[in-house]
């Protein structure tokens, strides 16, 4: 279950990261792109940290 969680959150993080980079490069929306990247990074770290601390199998 832990491996599945890592794989799923990594895929979601990569997709969100690519959208943030798209916002920065194509739409010249640096504030939006940076906020999307920061929020997705925080969510990625928090989700994995909570699941591993709780010890979900």
Description of the structure:
- With 57 residues, the chain is mostly helical.
- It starts with a helix and ends with a helix.
- The protein has 2 helices and no strands.
- The protein has helices spanning 2-25, 30-54.
- It is elongated.
- α1 packs antiparallel against α2.
- The chain has one domain (2-52).
- Helices cover 86% and strands 0% of the residues.
Helix content: over 70%
Mean pLDDT: 92
Order of helices and strands: HH
Oligomer state equals single chain
Q: Describe the biggest sheet?
A: none
Would you tell me the structural class of the helices and strands?
Answer: mainly alpha
Distance between the termini: 5 Å
Give the total of domains.
1
Based on CA inertia axes, which overall geometry fits? elongated
Q: Total number of helical segments?
A: 2
């Amino acid at each position: 279950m832990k491996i599945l969680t890592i794989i799923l959150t990594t895929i979601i993080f990569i997709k969100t990261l690519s959208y943030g980079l798209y916002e920065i490069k194509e739409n010249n929306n640096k504030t939006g792109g940076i906020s999307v990247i920061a929020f997705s990074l925080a969510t990625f770290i928090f989700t994995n940290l909570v699941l591993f601390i709780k010890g979900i199998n």
